[in-house]
Amino acid sequence: MDRASLEALLDAVALGQVTAEEAAQRLERLPFVDLNYAKVDTHRQLRTGLPEVVYAPGKTIEQINGIARTLLGEPGGPLLVTRATREVYDSVRSIAPEAVYNELGRTIVLRAEVAAPPGTVGVVTAGTSDLPVAEEAASTLEAASVKVDRITDVGVAGLHRLLSVSDRLRDADVLIVCAGMEGALPSLVGGMVSCPVIAVPTSVGYGSSFGGLAALLAMLNSCAPGIAVVNIDNGFGAAALAVRMLRRVNA
């Protein structure tokens, strides 16, 4: 349940359209529904502005479907499943035919928000190999009705590519920058723009990149101010942070 749904319910009670008992029955499911294998947080969007998100790895298809069915039974914002396989998508689609699958980003989105976008987030990749992480971020943002500008393959190996999109970088309200290898791109971008930059290290690179650890350390040690860093391959976390930034500014 989100704030708008709660306000609508309270208005209905005030107008006599819904009895107090009926309202209490709807609210008694807050703040979570216990499915034995999961305590589904139906209160999260009301509390934090971001809905419960289903992380697919480690869960059975039956568990994912049960959680999805519970969340879809509640009024409010979007349902997002991350790191989902095609098999998971096919199963979820059986209970929610309108589900949309981003195969590259491995996300499933149901009931995306349709409110006016609170701003624009530029999702930037150093290379094509960073696209899966970037698409996880982009589809998460789009589920929250945030406008996304995808800026791809502008890594430091060819600086002229980044300079060619400098206007788009400066037009964004927040930038999410995904990079593997040596992880230098967020530092370079951070020196070019005034908006917040969220750096996402990716597990792209040869042996000494240590699965993204080299990029993570480089981003944490950036000399460019105004850069926040999330965990390796955490496109979802970067998008969630961007949404909070935008909503706080527009509140």
Protein described:
The protein is globular. It has helices spanning 3-14, 20-27, 44-48, 61-72, 86-95, 131-143, 159-163, 166-171, 185-190, 213-220, 235-250, and strands spanning 32-34, 39-41, 53-55, 79-82, 100-102, 107-110, 120-125, 147-151, 174-179, 197-201, 227-229. The protein has two domains: 42-110, Ribosomal Protein S8, Chain: A, domain 1 (2-Layer Sandwich), CATH 3.30.1370; 120-250, 3-Layer(aba) Sandwich (Rossmann fold). Strands 8-7-9-10-11 form a five-stranded parallel β-sheet. The protein has 251 residues and is of the alpha/beta class. Helix 4 (61-72) packs across helix 5 (86-95) and helix 6 packs parallel to helix 11 (235-250). The mean pLDDT is 86. The longest helix has 16 residues, at 235-250. The protein contains eleven helices and eleven strands. Strand 1 and strand 2 (39-41) form a beta hairpin.
Please outline what is shown here.
The chain has eleven helices and eleven strands. It has helices at residues 3-14, 20-27, 44-48, 61-72, 86-95, 131-143, 159-163, 166-171, 185-190, 213-220, 235-250, and strands spanning 32-34, 39-41, 53-55, 79-82, 100-102, 107-110, 120-125, 147-151, 174-179, 197-201, 227-229.
